[in-house]
Amino acid sequence: MKNQHIGSSFDGFLEEEGILGEAQAIAVARVLAWEVSQYLVEHNTTKTAFAKVLETSRMQVDRLIDPEDTSVSLNTMAKVAEVMGKKLEFRLV
Question: Which CATH number goes with the domain that contains 24?
Answer without folding.
Answer: 1.10.260
